[in-house]
Amino acid sequence: MPAALDRIRVGSAPDSWGVWFADDPLQVPWERFLDEVAEAGYEWIELGPYGYLPTDPARLADEVGKRGLKVSAGTVFTGLHRGPAVWESTWAHVSQVAALTQAMGARHLVVIPSFWRDDKTAEILEPPELTGEQWAHLTKGMERLGHEVKERYGLDIVVHPHADTHLDTEAHVERFLDSTDSDLVNLCLDTGHYAYCGGDSVKLIETYGERIGYLHLKQVDPDILAEVVRDEVPFGPAVARGVMCEPPSGVPALEPVLAAAQRLGVELFAIVEQDMYPCEADAPLPIAVRTRKFLRSCGA
């Protein structure tokens, strides 16, 4: 039997049910997501895109509570590399999500940098590499965000490296961590996105363990990824091709990732996210059940 991963709190998210947007006819209704994530055996969930789940705190607390669920985090997208001019609009969005996250008793806010390439059209929105000035805006902006979110809402921000954003590869992630204050900013390590961009999750955990504040568990299909890289396919169409796959069929292997996280000696959320937008309504639940069973076999 594997060693018990008693510091790892496993959950899932709307993303694993094909949910990317607050409202989209291709997505399952939020009631079905909540019913099925509980049926699959998960206790923790993320809020997903703001507005997908009810935004009235009392109603949301009732809906998750009656299903035996609890909220681990909210999620926001930001473009802080663009400098002080975007702070006001960024904060308007962040404060909305942070208030609901706080009301649900969660302690984390997952922060994802904005995309440099359009998910659907492949249009290049910005250069994929930041200038030195933009890097300074990004790091200082994230530190300011971490400070404000902590002061006003009591939440810790965890920044999520993501494909087709400026925070993606090992070099970019290490530069970001080396340029930010650990008291204000830490990392949400998404194992799938990091592998998608060529990174080694176990190495990152072992090298920057004190900066790992949260985990997303995800795998990529290496064969499809090779095609995606070769053809320069944007992230959205890559997901539609099935680049993110059901564990344990892809990479990275999750057992050593979880073991490395356990060795950090701190409590960590490990939230399953299998990007599947769009997907058939009946597809997510069986995958979620099998994935939960697999994670139990790992000790989680």
Automatic annotation (TrEMBL):
Q: Which PANTHER family match?
A: HYDROXYPYRUVATE ISOMERASE (PTHR12110), INOSOSE DEHYDRATASE (PTHR12110:SF41)
- List the protein's name: Sugar phosphate isomerase/epimerase family protein
Q: Which residues form the Xylose isomerase-like TIM barrel domain?
A: 34-296
Q: Which Gene3D superfamilies match?
A: Divalent-metal-dependent TIM barrel enzymes
Superkingdom in the source lineage: Bacteria
Keywords linked to the UniProt accession = Isomerase
Which one Pfam family would you cite for this protein? AP_endonuc_2
Which molecular function GO terms apply here? isomerase activity
